[in-house]
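not sure who needs this but someone in the group chat was asking about Tetratricopeptide repeat protein from Halopseudomonas laoshanensis so here u go. i didnt clean anything up, its just raw.
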Amino acid sequence: MNRHWIWLLALLVIAAVGTTWWAAQLPSASTPGPAANIATPHWVEESQCQGCHTAAFADWQGSHHQLAMQPATEQTVLGDFSGQQIDTDTESHLFLGQDDALVIRTPGADGQSADFKVAYTFGLEPLQQYLLEMPGGRLQAHGMAWDTQQQAWFHLYQDQAVDHHSPLHWTGAVQNANFMCIECHATDFQRNYNAATDSFASRWQAPGVGCQSCHGPASGHLTWAENHSASKPEQHNNSKGFSANPSIAPTAEVEVCARCHSRRAPLDDGYQHSNALMDDFLPSILSADLYEVDGKIKDEVFEYGSFKQSKMHAAGVACSDCHNPHSGELRASGNGVCTQCHNGNAQPIRAAIDGSGLQAKDYDSPAHHHHPNGSAGAQCINCHMPGKLYMTNDLRHDHSFTSPNPAQALELGHSDACLGCHQQVEPAELVAQYLAQYPDAEPRDGGYAQDLSAARDGEPGAAAALNRQLARDDQPAIRVATLISELPRYPSLAALQQLASALQHADPSVRVAAANSLPALASETQLADLLAPLASDPVRAVRLAVAWQLAQLSAQTKSGLTTWPTLQAEYEQVQNNLLERADAHFNLAMLYQLSGREDRVEAALRAALERDSAFFPAVIMQAQWQEQYFRLPQVGLAILHKALKAHPGEASLQHALGMALVRQGKLADALPAFTQAHQLAPNNPDYAYVLAIALHDSGEPEQARELLRQQLAADPANRQLRLALVSYLGGQDSQEARMLMEQLREQNPDDPAVAGR
């Protein structure tokens, strides 16, 4: 059997899937639970805050935070429910006022139109969404939203063929507000999901984001205030560690805001105010699918990731230096927010902010921005915080505070404020104008974008570029984590040593990235030795990353790790806290298989598909499990064919079908499936790699080589594709093969495949 097939067939599961990134949850019953013990910190009615904190309470009234979620009434619902009908590309929706209720007549999960009651509003402007009541305590976010500026209905997924078969349909798991949204729209939200009945008994203290959402349970503070204590509130801590002083230090503020203003995966049912951010959530790094190569926002990532990499954050600037945290409004109008620090005095607004990088300069002047005063180009945010539209009409500004760099943007292919605004000007002319106006302009990121682009594109010196950026002592931790995640593409002893060092980094996001990257470069023994000390890491996200990597080691290796049972139990408990999600059941199925509990795998996979029938990793593993564990290959094929009938355009199912047929020795039958998978997902290098192997072993070696050439041209950093092509060229004897290996040497001279040759 071809060695490539041996490697591929050794994999039981094609891809492992982690928990979803959304951290907000949704409720269906708002009645608070019984009163908590007075000795235990607990939530209180927030109207009690008003007596002492009058100004803050007044700012909060009417804010986006306060009105983030409201019971649906004629006063709170902004959309037109007078009988208007809206037809989208796949469905028809009618908005009605009916018997003192507001309803949407819309296709349900079965595709049949029915009337669904609007229970809550979501958001205020520029759009408002609506949560519809469903059985089992579910609240579902409908795909139709009201544009408060245009005063019109629009669909969030218009022209994307969203109907009741689609994962994006309002009745599906992706739109379940209990898990996806309400945690960030209500105070003290608890999902209260019952896996046995597949239902929610969700609750919250109050709809909307209130005082305690950020400051924590206020019972201790109220007790101190009611006793008129002469001492300072921070001197009164209870046994649970909650201070009677609910103020938030600027150093902690960014993490508090990040609970909602970040792209993240939840690790539990809600969060604890005494926890670090990464005890309750796993924020995303600056991956290529989410962020541009210079760090600006690309996908819907909110503010945290971009701000964490900014010079503002490094200097100690906190969210509330620019935003009134209670009203959500800016501290000043126009450029006034920026000129609080960036002015002729070069003095920061707080002593704790490092002002060493400030220059005494009139930034609010045409001499700096080279645009007429009052124009869009004269506004700081338009050049240094360019925005993008999300959810169709919601403009959100980037918070990495980059400077325009049209020349670099053209070279690397990222967006740029100058290019975006002056689209009528030829790019070369615009670059010349920019350099004439800013002759001393140079990248403020120390070449980070250039070097990261070189690493991702497999340019000569790619490994050195990563090393250069990782050697900097001023690199923001989120960028370090991002760079660390690129190291597996450039294997070497030095890269392994860098990962070993990163496991000791002060920032937990770097430790997580190092743990996830390590298996690509380390042997099983090295992996166990390096990861074992992190079993007692103080941050839960790190321990979970370590647990998953150790779970994949052999039983013999794990038996020598005294900490493994504890790590496994914690990983399993986190998945059990998220059982409303298909991916949590899938993760459990993977863990059961890896830990020798095969009798529990099938039930976990069934539970995953009961939560989301279109969760394709579970479909694929279920088919493989029938084939390999129960020795029922035809049953496995039937599962895949059934799924493909419902989702013919899903590349992962086509690929899995091809793999199943190969395992049955039916390469000729598998080839069309592999071809279809590649056509459906042409940028997936794994599908192209497998198709090339199939073509080669089917007697089409030149087609295999040509496919690898094309794919490698699009992804020069892909070492697997490169070495496969060299192999299919007959080793390193041909001129083309020698050229390919020389390119690999230029990328990474320490690569084991070229080192010493």
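also The longest helix spans residues 633-646. if thats useful
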